[in-house]
Amino acid sequence: MTSPKYRRILLKLSGESLAGEHNYGIDVNAADTLAATIKSIYDLGVEIALVIGAGNLWRGKDGLDHGMERATADHMGMLATVMNALALADGLGRVGIDTRVQTAIEMKAVAEPYIRGRAIRHLEKGRVVIIGAGTGNPYFTTDTAAALRAMEIDAELLVKATKVDGVYESDPHINPDAKRFETITYIEALNMGLKVMDGTALTLCMENEMPIVVLNLWQPDSLKNTVMGHTVGTLVSY
């Protein structure tokens, strides 16, 4: 069998990927589906780190709209990502994958503190590492956390998993004629205001030459084909 093109990746998941058909909360069946998808590339020998959002449990904007302090809203979101990380770790464990949850905010009773060297060592030993609590700081999104951790663990590729099959010039749900990009440069994405990742995350990837693939995780074998080097979704690079 042909070897994967990418040996170590960071996979950025939205919190909604755990919500299932209810679009809220944690659906155990959705966790099982995600675990099976991740296992398809784990079995190829790919080293995998994960960062997951919290949109299925908490959206900071809702708090801000009611006058909540931004730092408080963001810290609540960080804690919600840890709940998602634990749920996903449980799903991965049920398919036989050894997993470690690390968090940027220390909570030693439920997870390891995030330590770069330890995370890399887990990956080298064949463990999947799920990194929760964002960067540990308010005002930074999980997109930025994913970009930062991808750089820190020396990932070869950052994969942003969505429900859309790539990056479009406008919302394809609103404009069915919207153009989809097969490849695009970082600066083009920034200048056009495309919703690849937030500007901080995208700039960080650009400055450190971290390629990004945006794909629809729910398309059969999309993630597997990506790590094998096939063209899937949209590649953002120089």
Written overview of the protein:
This protein has helices at 28-42, 60-65, 70-94, 116-124, 142-152, 186-192, 199-207, 222-227; strands at residues 8-13, 47-52, 99-103, 112-113, 128-132, 157-162, 167-168, 180-181, 183-185, 212-216, 234-237. The chain is of the alpha/beta class and 238 residues long. The protein has a single domain, classed as 3-Layer(aba) Sandwich (Carbamate kinase). The protein has a nine-stranded mixed β-sheet, with helices on both faces. Strands 7-8 form a two-stranded antiparallel sheet. Helix 1 (28-42) links the parallel strand 1 (8-13) and strand 2. Helix 1 (28-42) crosses helix 3 and helix 6 packs antiparallel against helix 7. The two termini are 30 Å apart. The model has no long low-confidence stretch (mean pLDDT 95).
Give a quick precis of the structure.
This protein has helices spanning 28-42, 60-65, 70-94, 116-124, 142-152, 186-192, 199-207, 222-227, and strands spanning 8-13, 47-52, 99-103, 112-113, 128-132, 157-162, 167-168, 180-181, 183-185, 212-216, 234-237. The chain has 238 residues and is an alpha/beta fold. It starts with 7 loop residues before the first strand and ends with a strand.
Structural class determined from secondary elements: alpha/beta
Strand arrangement within the widest β-sheet reads 4-3-5-2-1-6-10-11-9
- End-to-end distance: 30 Å
Number of separate structural domains:
1
In the CATH hierarchy, what is the class? Alpha Beta
Radius of gyration: 17 Å
Number of strands: 11
Shape: globular
Which whole number gives the mean pLDDT? 95
CATH topology: Carbamate kinase
CATH second-level architecture: 3-Layer(aba) Sandwich
